[in-house]
Each structure stands twice: as C-alpha cells, then as structure tokens.
Design brief:
The complex is a heterodimer of chains A (111) and B (111). With 111 residues, chain A is mostly beta strands. Chain A is 0% helix and 53% strand. In chain A, the strands form 2 sheets. In chain A, strands 2, 4, 5, 6, 9, 10 and 11 form a 7-stranded mixed beta sheet that branches. A 4-stranded antiparallel beta sheet of chain A has the order 1-3-8-7, with no helix packed on it. Chain B starts with a strand and ends with a strand. The chains are: A mainly beta (111), B mainly beta (111). Chains A and B meet through strand 5, strand 9 and strand 10 of A and strand 4, strand 5 and strand 10 of B.
C-alpha cells in the first residue's frame, strides 16, 4: 500500500501565477487534510475534505485559495495569483480511523 | 482557542543521553495527542498517539506520557542516537479531525 503521495514535490511560481498542488491519499482513505508550514513555523490546518465535500475550511484564507477532492482523482489545493507570502511547504494527510498519515509535502517558492 | 507550546525549541545532546521533550496545551478538552518526527525537507512520521483516556504509550526507545488535566505531555527518548536527530512535533485534536500543532523541538544528537 503506497503512502500518501503529493506532487509536485517542488514548485516555483512567479507572483500572479496559479499554483496547483495535488494529493493522492492512501488507498481506501476518503478523508484528506491540507496543512501549511511557513518558514520557521509549525504546521497550520487549512482544510478538511471528504470525497466531493468540504467538511471544514476554517483555516483556509478566504481569497485566492480553494480545495477540492473529487469522486475520482487526487485532492487539489489551488492558489490563484500567488504572492511571496504563499511560499511555504504544503502537506496533505489522509486519515484512517484516528491516525493521519502525511505526504512528503510540496514546497512552493514564489519569486 | 487551543495553543500548543513546545520547549525547548532546540536541543543538542551527545549520543547515549536520555532526554525529555515537553509539550503543553491550553485547552485540556482534547480527544487525543500525537507525537511526530519531521526530517529536513521531508514529511511527518507519526511516532505515538495517546488517547485522552490514556496516560502513556511506548514504542521502542520512545515513551510518551499525557497529563490531560494539567495540559502537558512529555516525549522521553532513551539512549539517544545520531539517527534521532530531527524536529519533533506534538499535535492535539479535539475530535477525530484536524490537528493543532506545536512549533516543534529541533533535536541534534552528536556522536
């Protein structure tokens, strides 16, 4: 059983471009969480999704950020019109019972 | 609002020492507490999960304790090794969903 997969592992964007981050949960897991880790800070919750539903998006900025987890395919975190402050590591986790399993993260650098 | 604090922020010890990492949280109404390890540029690896009704969990050289009423947890690492060098994160949840992380303790074990 492969672990949680994220791609790309590294992403460079210029200010104003769009960033799309993908997360494939472990097989059989239908819950996905996204967290953001800013430089020298801890991980902060962004959004919690189940298949085709957003359960909790209380940690996600109201503008420019969106997330989805379609019936088929990976979960997508989309950042529109990126700014330098979006530079961070973005981790997703999938959950089975009470344990969250984390992917390796996508490191986004905005120039 | 739940806040999770970890001390010390950094720790450097010689190989073989036993050490204790501390985690405190402001809201004692937690569902569980989890300790993770994060290696540079990598994702998170779950080390131990303690349910709110439990006092401790052990895995190999690691022992985590939980004092829910006082809002504290400790991670004890016995006979530390250079391979233990990493950042250790604790995280709490209030139900079976999002994790609230501390800022971590960066551990270096030198030969």
């Amino acid at each position: 059983n492969a672990g949680v997969m994220q791609n790309p592992r590294h992403l460079v964007r210029r200010r104003g471009q769009e960033a799309r981050l993908r997360c494939s949960p472990m097989k059989g897991h239908s819950h996905v969480y996204w967290y953001r880790q800013l430089p020298e800070e801890g991980l902060k919750f962004m959004v919690y999704l189940q298949k085709e539903n957003i359960i909790d998006e209380s940690g996600m900025p109201k503008e420019r950020f969106s997330a989805e987890f379609p019936k088929e395919g990976p979960s997508i975190l989309r950042i529109q019109q990126v700014v330098r402050g979006d530079s961070a590591a973005y981790f997703c986790a999938s959950q089975y019972q009470e344990t969250q399993y984390f992917g390796p993260g996508t490191r986004l650098l905005v120039l | 609002k739940q806040e999770v604090t970890q001390i010390p922020a950094a720790l450097s010890v010689p190989e073989g020492e036993n050490l204790v990492l501390n985690c405190s949280f402001t809201d004692s109404a937690i569902y569980n507490l989890q300790w993770f390890r994060q290696d540079p540029g990598k994702g998170l690896t779950s080390l131990l999960l303690i349910q709110s009704s439990q006092r401790e969990q052990t895995s190999g050289r690691l022992n985590a304790s939980l004092d829910k009423s006082s809002g504290r947890s400790t991670l004890y690492i016995a006979a530390s090794q250079p391979g233990d060098s990493a950042t250790y994160l604790c995280a709490v949840s209030h139900n079976t969903d999002k994790l609230i992380f501390g800022t971590g303790t960066r551990l270096q074990v030198f030969p």
